[in-house]
Amino acid sequence: MGIEVDAREAVIRLLLNEQRVIDIVDRTGVSESTVYRIRKRLGHMCRPADCEYDSRYLNLLERREIARLHEQGVSIRQIASRLGRSPSTISRELRRHWHESFDTYLPEFAHHQAWTNQRRAKPSKISLHQRLREYVQQKLNVRLSPEQISGRLLIDHPQEEQMRISAESIYQSIYVYPRGELTRELKATLRTKRTRRRTRGSRHTSADTRIPNLVSIHQRPDEVAGRAVPGHHEGDLIKGSTASNSAVGTIVERHTGFVSLLHLPDGWASDQVVSAAIEQFEALPAFFAKTLTWDRGTEMSHHQQLTKATGIGVYFADPYKPQQRPSNENTNGLLREYLPKGEDLSRYSRTDLHAIAEQLNDRPRKRLGFYTPREVFTKLLNQDLENQERVATTP
C-alpha cells in the first residue's frame, strides 16, 4: 500500500527544505525506506550542508592528491591504486570536473561542483518543455502507453531533439507528485490502473533472505519438467479483499491436474499455510506426494517444516516467472469463477472449498483425453494398490 497523499507531500516538502531523513521519519511517521524511495525519485537530493561526506565519495584531500599526481604525469591507474579507488572513478572525476577556462583540474573547484551537483533536485524534462508536456498529456488521454508515446515522438517530431522522452521518464512524471507536473488524474488513463510505479531494474527481491534455506526450481528433479511422472505439485495463494486479509491455498498436481484447496480460517501466515499443506499431503499416498513448487511468497517461509513432516521436497520458482508454475496459474484462473477478486474469502468454509475442488476435479480435460483429474488419479491409485499387493505376495 502507498502512503497517504498528505504524508507524501509532507515528506517532499521536508526534503526540499534539506531536512535529514531521520528527522523526516520522526516528523511524519513515514518509514525510512519510503523516505529514501521518494528522495530517489526526486533526483537523489543529498544531505544538508553540515553533513559529512560518505566514504563512497571522493573527499577534498583525495581530490587534492588527484590534482598533484595528475600534474606530475602519473597515470590514472596509478592514481587509483595509490588512493585505493577504481580507475573509472578517477577518470570520471577528471572528466566531469575539469575546469575549461584554466584547462586543468582544480580540486577545490571540483569539490564544490560535486557537492552542488549532488545537492540539487534535477527538474524533469517534462517540467521544462510545455509542448512536450502537452503532447504527452494528449496521448495519455487517448490511452496510449508511455512506451507508445515515446516511440511516436520520433515519427511526429523527427527533427526536434527537445521532443524526446523515454517511457520511464513519463512514468516518473506521472507517479512522482508534485515533481511530475502531469496531473494525478492521468494515472487513471494508464491501462494497468496502478497508483504507484513498480520498481524497474533488478527484479530480484530479498525473498532469498526472507525464506530461509530457499531451494531454487533449477535444483528440482528433471522428471518434474514433464508431466509423465505423478506426484509433483504446484502451489500458491488466492488472495481475498484487502480489508478481509483472507486467502485460500491452491495446490495442483501436474500429471493429473488434481486440485486441492487449503482452508485458512486463521490467516495466511507461514505457520497456517504450512500446517494446512501438511494436513493435505499426509492424506495423499506416497507416490502422489513427491515435490511442491511454490512462488517466492513468504507464506511458505517455513517450508522446512513441511519437508520434515511429509518428506515433500519444496522448490521455489524464480521471481516474476509465473510461467514456471503453469498448472497452478491456469487453475487459479479457473478458481476465480468461484472465488472472485475483492471478496472476503474467509466466509468460505472447508466444506465449501471441498465442493469447489470436486467440481474442478470432475471437469473433463482435453490433455487427459477428456478424462477427469479424479478418474486419472483413481486409476493411478488402483495401479499402486495392485503393485503393493503383488510385492506383498511375492515369495
Automatic annotation (TrEMBL):
Q: Which GO terms describe its biological process?
A: DNA integration; DNA recombination; transposition
Looking at the Swiss-Prot or TrEMBL record, what is one Pfam family this protein matches? Answer: HTH_38
Domain of life of the organism encoding this protein: Bacteria
Which keywords does this Swiss-Prot/TrEMBL entry list? DNA recombination
Alphabetized InterPro entries for the sequence? Homeodomain-like_sf (IPR009057), Integrase_cat-core (IPR001584), IS30-like_HTH (IPR025246), RNaseH-like_sf (IPR012337), RNaseH_sf (IPR036397), Transposase-Integrase (IPR051917), Transposase_IS30-like (IPR053392)
Limits of the Integrase catalytic domain: 217-381
Single annotated GO MF: transposase activity
Q: Which GO terms describe its cellular component?
A: cytosol
Recorded protein name is IS30 family transposase
Organism per entry: Antricoccus suffuscus
